[in-house]
Design goal:
alpha/beta; 4-stranded parallel sheet; 4-stranded antiparallel sheet
Length: about 290
């Protein structure tokens, strides 16, 4: 497996942790690149220039760009000391990442494109799909305006960033508790976690469907179609999503995430990831995500 590079920012990243240190998959923490960022003059913008030994770890390879944020990193602190937003990192790394044979995920706001969105934005995107997918009813107010909850059965207040915890919000940030409030309908049916690795390449072998509470019977072809739609809509060849399945196999989409934090606790996560890695042993250049 000498054709894959993982660039990550979180030391607890589940994909980085899943790879043993004795494999030939290149693992690069973003702080390893910090010394190649420069700001030479007081009013200058940052620059980035990597030596050939670094570029060779990206050129012609499948690159997993796992820089979702720069919290708790030396590079993030460096940018902050210069007075620059972390989006500069994603912009400056674009040229290096463009040398890959394939890039998952591309650079964009907060590090990836269309994948780190709040719940209400996710639901708007999913509602725009050609194949109608149900989403939760919700009310979102702006500022301190009053919230009309009559149209929602069993409303619960949530953070727009709380993707996979669907009990009453327990860690609501103070800023959202009374300002820009977000209420959703309490979920009905059975929760099901799904995660996938490159299903356009691996098909059913790249998809896992995990009932989280009650046994649920859903045709795999139906789940495969849904996963492909979401992978395309969120520009993400690798990710996880949460659905609730009601009577008559009615599916309601709740959230998508590229983090894979929830999926990584499932017993088949590492074998599925290894299957994806093995499929790239002899990868050739076939374009970017």
């Amino acid at each position: 497996m000498d054709k894959v590079t993982i660039l990550y920012s979180d030391v607890e990243d589940p994909l980085a942790l899943a790879i043993p240190s004795d494999t030939r998959v290149h693992k690069i923490h973003v702080d390893e690149l910090a010394s190649f960022f420069r700001k030479d003059e007081r009013w200058a913008v940052p620059t980035f220039s990597a030596p050939d030994r670094i570029r060779s770890r990206f050129h012609g390879r499948v690159v997993l760009n796992r820089i979702f944020n720069l919290q708790s990193t030396k590079l993030g602190a460096l940018l902050q000391s210069w007075g620059f937003h972390e989006l500069w990192v994603h912009f400056l790394l674009s040229e290096l990442l463009a040398e890959s044979a394939r890039l998952v995920h591309d650079t964009g706001p907060r590090g990836v494109s269309r994948t780190l969105l709040p719940l209400n934005s996710q639901w708007l995107m999913v509602n725009d799909l050609e194949h109608a997918i149900s989403t939760p009813a919700y009310v979102y107010n702006f500022g301190g305006e009053l919230v009309e909850l009559d149209a929602i059965d069993n409303p619960i207040q949530k953070s727009v960033w709380s993707l996979f915890d669907w009990r009453q919000e327990r860690h609501l940030p103070a800023g959202e508790a009374a300002w820009h409030r977000f209420f959703v309908q309490k979920p009905t049916g059975s929760p099901v976690l799904c995660y996938f690795f490159d299903i356009d390449r691996l098909g059913e072998d790249g998809l896992a469907v995990v009932p989280l509470r009650d046994p649920v019977s859903i045709p795999m072809d139906k789940m495969l179609t849904l996963a492909k739609l979401l992978a395309t809509k969120f520009a993400s060849a690798i990710g996880e999503f949460l659905i609730y399945v009601g009577e008559d196999e009615n599916i309601r989409f709740h959230a998508f995430s590229p983090y894979l934090k929830t999926a990584s606790s499932h017993g088949d996560f590492v074998p599925l990831f290894n299957r994806w890695l093995e499929s790239h042993q002899s990868v050739t250049r076939f374009g970017h995500e």
